[in-house]
Amino acid sequence: MGSLEGHLSYISSVTFFPNESKILSCSGDCTIRIWDISLERKIQLTEGYIDTITAVKFSPDGSKIVSSSGDKTIRLWDAQSGRQTQVFEGHSDSISGVLFSPDGSKIASYSSDKTIRIWDVLSGKQLQLLDERLNLVSKVQFSPDGSKLVICSFNGIRIWDISSGTQNQLGRAVYAQFLSDGRRIIFCSANTIKLCDFLSNEQIQIFEGHQDSAHMIHISPDDSKLVSCSWDKTIRVWDISSGRQLFSYEVSECATEAIFSPDGTTIAICLNKTIELCDVLTGKQIQILNGHSDFIPRIKYLLDGSKIISYSRDKTIRIWDTSLGKQIQVLEGHNGYINCIDLSPDGSKLVSCSEDKTIRLWGSENGKIVDVTETSVVDYIWKIGTQSGLSMKGSIWKDTKGLEDEQKMLVKQRGGII
């Protein structure tokens, strides 16, 4: 009988590879190890995060992925190999979100330590610190030229000039978005939505009609229209130049998100477990996408608008054909809530992160994610991190005489076959 040694702490789970003489083990030393039973040696080691991964984003050129975590670090990964290339340290509490500047040279991060930090991608050094005791930061966005950040928090909206460090406060609001000129900004303020020129502090337009607070907005690709979600259970579409409401779309419950398609002709709306598609010209529903069994936090259109990607508290990612109104792919593998997804700029790959402490990069065997069909095989290309609650999906357990009833139940719960 052989002994496989190498873990530095307790081993929490072990499973056999189906039809292969290999074992996968998971340990409290924050590593996953793959062992070749016939050779009695370790053949692969994956070290990773020790806490929940809160956000992932592709760089503008698609060559890098940045991630943030509850372990107070930001990490940079090579998108091709999954190799870690940089660690950014400085935050003193869990990091809520992270994003690249438009030119990919900088990273912005925001944290529960109530600070926002700007980092240099090449050197890994911190360039700027905004330490204003910001409470509950909900959104951070670079201006189109990368010179400024809009920060939405419980303290209100601030425009931060990164080079000079100067700030401009726009008042209390929960959500804001730059227009493509980088000068005008639209934000939610209680029941109203306001359009301002933040350089001159001039209010350009006000959008009134919601009967309760607006909590989310999205601007059409050509900057001509605005869609808003409110706790009054309506989705409203507005003409930006005139401030006129084009139509109001009533929903059965409060929407979590509404976004324009890339051509601006359709709006996709998240409603708990379903997605509704609405025609911008008529204001009428054109499709309902059903399939998720739990809450959908966010959705994303693919580049040509032909498909939507959604992720849910049911721990799956789904790809939908918008014209047919049906699901064409289900991506499974995460066994914790999915916190974030992002699509590479060329539409070839998808990255996801989860409370199971892993990052997965997904791709299709026959081309780009944007081109997948029902018959395409989509799977993860690489996975980073030590997955909590190891999945046993596909493993076959022929001899279970030594297992207690509780252990057999655990095998079945995690996808094993007895």
UniProtKB/TrEMBL annotation:
PROSITE patterns membership: WD_REPEATS_1, WD_REPEATS_2, WD_REPEATS_REGION
Intervals holding WD repeats: 4-45, 46-87, 88-129, 207-248, 289-330, 331-372
UniProt keyword annotations, A-Z: Repeat, WD repeat
InterPro entries from the UniProt entry: WD40, WD40/YVTN_repeat-like_dom_sf, WD40_PAC1, WD40_repeat_CS, WD40_repeat_dom_sf, WD40_rpt
Repeat is among the record's keywords: yes
Record bears the keyword Repeat: yes
Pfam families reported for this sequence: PD40 (PF07676), WD40 (PF00400)
Lineage: superkingdom: Eukaryota
Name the UniProt record assigns to this protein: Uncharacterized protein
Organism: Reticulomyxa filosa
